Amino acid sequence: MKLRTRIHVxxxxxxxxxxxxxxxxxxxxxxxxxxxxxxxxxxxxxxELTVELQKTAAEDRDMVIRAYMPPDGALLIxxxxxxxxxxxxxxxxxxxxxxxxxxxxxxxxxxxxGVPAVTVAMPFISTGGEVAELRITQLxxxxxxxxxxxxxxxxxxxxxxxxxxxASSVALGQIVTRPINVLTGTMRENxxxxxxxxxxxxxxxxxxxxxxxAYNDMMDQLGxxxxxxxxxxxxxxxxxxxxxxxxxxxARLLKRRGFGDRNVADEAVEAILSQSIRMKDLTxxxxxxxxxxxxxxxxxxxxxxxxxxxxxxxxxxQAYGREFSIEGPEKLLAETDPDKLRQLLFILLDNARxxxxxxxxxxxxEKEGLVELAVADHGPGIPEADLPHLFxxxxxxxxxxxxxxxxxxxxxxxAKEIADGLGAEISVExxxxxxTVFRISFPTNRxx
Length: 448
Ligand code: ADP
Fold this sequence. Notes:
Its EC number is 2.7.13.3. Residues 174-227 form the HAMP domain. Keywords: ATP-binding, Cell membrane, Kinase, Membrane, Nucleotide-binding, Phosphoprotein, Transferase, Transmembrane, Transmembrane helix, Two-component regulatory system. The chain crosses the membrane at residues 6-30. It is found in: Cell membrane. The chain has 448 residues and is α+β, with helices and mostly antiparallel strands. The protein has 3 domains: 3-159, Beta-Lactamase (2-Layer Sandwich); 195-232; 299-448, 2-Layer Sandwich (Heat Shock Protein 90), CATH 3.30.565. It contains 9 helices and 12 strands. The chain has helices at 3-55, 61-68, 141-193, 207-257, 262-292, 305-320, 338-354, 398-401, 411-422; strands spanning 73-79, 84-89, 108-112, 115-125, 131-139, 301-304, 324-327, 333-336, 360-367, 370-377, 425-431, 435-443. The strands form 3 sheets. A 5-stranded antiparallel beta sheet has the order 2-1-5-4-3. A 5-stranded mixed beta sheet has the order 7-9-10-12-11. Helix 4 (207-257) runs antiparallel to helix 5.
């Protein structure tokens, strides 16, 4: 059964059951109250009659009984031995009545040719001291009519109340299912067209809005991943083309000329080796880039940033015999992914080393809930025009393209991706001829 039909059937049925239950309750309550009222009246009449009969001489009894006889009624006095002492009726339909009380309550209702009759009974002591029972019955035509009218009114009201209930359940079904249908339609279209279309998020702040937001977020993520993947494939094939072509042409040269010409052979092997190393670096960095923004790849924990800085710098000092200084507090606790932060610092420190000759300075600072790290060098600096593109993939400042620094132009774009993953801001300040400072800042506590 469709969700819409289910909502429809469930709300309609539920409301019908509530209304029918209420109407039935009202009907039976009214019926009980009306019969009780009639029985009370008959009891009153009977009690007055018993008092009156005790004062009345035997020959006048019939007259008194007739005076107290209810209209459309019957009256019977039964002796203790079951003998009928008096048996009169004012309506021919009640010949042979009053009925025997069934003892289930203070009054009995009997059906007399489709009309209800109410009978009450009470003890009666005759003037002769004989214990007898007085039974009075009255036909309740008017009550039957009132109940029939009430039944009609209640059925009519229930039916009338069901109209808005049905209308609102149809509307409710539409409100709930329309966004789901739109979502299903968009998903189908996306699958058919291979697109990442989003859906209208609407203005409400309800669960359906939340669902649309979650779906659109998912589409964003899928779209980004797809773009990333495409970019990776095109970047990889574009950047790997040059070294592969170089390797291929030198290999052909070797094949053609053999190893007879020592100079050519040396040049070819040298070129093949350097291009292979370049390809290895490129693929490693491209793979790092492709993985860098997978949220699951980041594991945050409390760590001492000073320790991370020392651990990054120590092997570099040894490997390059250069001066790498660290300034700032001896302990700086913050929440981060230590491995990723180490990777990020390494890229910046390695660039400072590659593009300058003097000392490289790493500064640590804590300011208003933020950790600030700065990597400064006194290298040639970066022209202002290049600064906005520095974090683009494969971007290299022109003068460095020809220099043998062995770069790929991927380091800073990877640094940017890692900084994003860490929730950190990365920025650069540089003055040509003076030096360059790369800054990273991130909150000490991720929740704040
Ligand atoms: P790579 O270093 O592999 O070329 P990067 O993305 O790390 O790639 O850097 C991009 C370019 O930015 C470099 O080619 C270089 O021209 C410039 N650059 C990066 N860091 C510095 C620095 N500290 N000083 C001067 N230039 C730099």
